[in-house]
Amino acid sequence: MAPSTSEKHSKHSVRRYLAANVSTRHADLPLLACCFVTGIIDAGAYNAWGTFMGMQTGNTIFLALGVADLPTNRAPLQWLRSLLAIFSFIMGSLVSSAIARPVGPTRRLSLSISFLLQGISILLAAIFIATDVIPTNDTRSNRVMIGIPVLAWQFGAQVAASRALGYNEIPTTVLTSVYNDLATDPRLWTWKNAKRNRRAAAAVLVLAGGIAGGWLSRLRDGFRIVLWIAGAIKVTIGLAWLAFREAIADGPDV
Questions:
Q1: Residue 72 host element (H or E)
Q2: Taking the model in full, what pTM does it have?
C-alpha cells in the first residue's frame, strides 16, 4: 500500500524540522554549560591522569617539559599522554568540522548528533573506569591512555561547534583569551554588554566546574562520578538542540 498524502507530509515535516538551522539567540546557554563540563573534567583528569582533556595549552607545556625529562616525579610516558590528548583534540575538531560542514554545522540534527556522541564518549570513559579497563587506584598505569582520546576528541568537537554557532567569546576550553578580551573591552563597564557577560560567565563556570571536579576527586570513585555528571550534561545538551527554535536571520546579541 502506497503511503498516504498525510504520511508523506508528516515525514517531510520531520525531515525539514531536523534539517533546519537552529536560532543562535540563546545558543550561548548550552555553550556555557560546556564551560562547566570543561572545568569539571579537566580538574578530575589532571588529578587522576596528570593530563588535561580540554585545555591543550597546558598539555603543550607538559609535552615540552617531557623533552627535558621533567618533572622528576612524572608518571611513565607522561609526555605521551599529553601528546595523545593534543592529537585527539585536533582530530575531534578536524573530523567533526569536516563532517558537519557539508550538511550544515548549525542544523538541529547535526548539533544534536555531535553533542550526543560527545556525551556518549564521556560516559564510555566512565564505564571503562567502572569495569577496571582503566585502573582507578594506579594513576601511573599506561592504561589510562585508553581513556585520553575518548575524552579529548569530544572537546575538539565542542570547540568546533562553538565556532560554528558564532560565539567566539565562549571558546569553552580556554580562558586566556577570555581574560584578555574582558580586560581590553572598551565597553567593559557598559550596562548592556552581552559579550562581556558571556565571557565573565564562561570564566566563572570553568572555575565552578574545576572546584566541583576537585572536591569530587577526593572521593574514592570521584573521577568516575565526574564523568557521569559531565556525560549527562552533554547528552542533555544534545537532546536540547532538537527543541531549539528555527533560525530566522538572527544572531548573537552584542
A1: none
A2: 0.92
- DSSP letters, 166-177, are T-TT--SS--HH
Smallest CA-to-CA distance from 34 within 155, 200, 169 is with 155
Which residue, chain included where needed, has cell 540563546? 26
Residue the block writes with cell 560546556: 34
Q: Which three cell numbers stand for residue 56?
A: 591543550
CB 169 within 8 A of CB 253: no
Handedness of CA 48, 88, 143, 147 (dihedral sign): positive
Give which of 89, 112, 132 is closest to 17, Cα–Cα.
112
Q: What nine digits make up the cell of 211?
A: 572546584
- Per residue in 198-234, pLDDT (tens digit) is 999 999 999 999 999 999 999 989 999 999 999 999 9
Contact 231, 120 (CB under 8 A): yes
Q: CA-CA distance, 199 to 203, in Å (whole number)?
A: 6
Cell 581513556, located at residue:
147
